[in-house]
Amino acid sequence: MTALLLPLLFATLLWFTSTGLVLWLDRLPSTTWPVSIVAATVVSGFAMGAIIMTAPMVGDGAAYVAFASALVLWGWHEMSFLMGFVTGPNRAPCPPDARGWRRFRLAAGTLIHHEVAMFATVLVMAGATWGQPNQTATLTFLLLFVMRLSAKLNIFAGVPHLSLEMMPDRMRYMASYFRVAPASWFFVASLVAIAVVAAWLGNAALTAPSGLATGYALAFALVVLAFIEHGFLVVPWQDTSLFRWAMRNRHGAKLSAQQTTKHQQSTLAALDTVRQ
How high is the pLDDT of residue 249? Predict the structure, then answer.
């Protein structure tokens, strides 16, 4: 089990700091966003180079570099989404009478460009590392993509608790496509599938050779974090409490409790249009 502790700690700290950094940059004035996204694009280029460079390597260090580089690319996608550069053609709230396939089609239209961009990144990374022993970066990004897609589908289908504070004001129309409802069979199936993947990765980390084991251990840590994030969808305590230091408004001041409540109330009013 000690083989899993360091990767778990590394993955958790990197996930925490990178998520907080993206949220902090997103809370800066919109005039800073072009500079932020250009800088992130340059850094992502170096990260892609590091992924290609470490793909033939099987050492522990190569696995950590590949994992961190994949998170850099993931951070670029999150920034481009939260800043509104890459979202979808539909930027309108859900019509009150939208149900079934129409509601799904409209919801998909709010973020389809973001999803396609991430899937394209998976394909590029897979192609760049094809046949190489170090698949840590590709596996990391693929898991991030699948786990985030699972969370989005569950939020669309309906969950008891939603964390809305991370959503920028300009994108709160998306909340009208969410649903507050008891956890469904899909949520249970998602948790079981995530647990199975985590168990497989954990076993691979304990049985694979040293360098490869580190890559599997980092992937295992990521899936454990995804399991916990899914759990937040059904408990009243939200993970946004971990990112108060990064949750700043556009003038650089921390969101007050009163402001947070007002944001939640306004978004929950939109949610009422899709509750069933």
Answer: 52
CA dihedral 121, 19, 17, 267 (to 10 degrees): 180
* pLDDT score of 235: 81
Which pLDDT score is estimated for 3?
A: 67
- Which residues, at least 6 apart from 237, have a Cβ–Cβ distance to it below 8 Å? none
Measured CA to CA, the distance from residue 73 to residue 65 in angstroms comes to: 13
Looking at the whole model, is its pTM more than 0.90? no
Question: Token pair for residue 156?
Answer: 């669309």
Q: For residues 148 and 126, what is the distance between their CA atoms, to the nearest angstrom?
A: 19
Q: Are 230 and 154 in contact (CB under 8 A)?
A: yes
CB neighbours of residue 105 within 10 Å: 12
3-state helix, strand, coil in the chain (%, to 5): 70, 0, 25
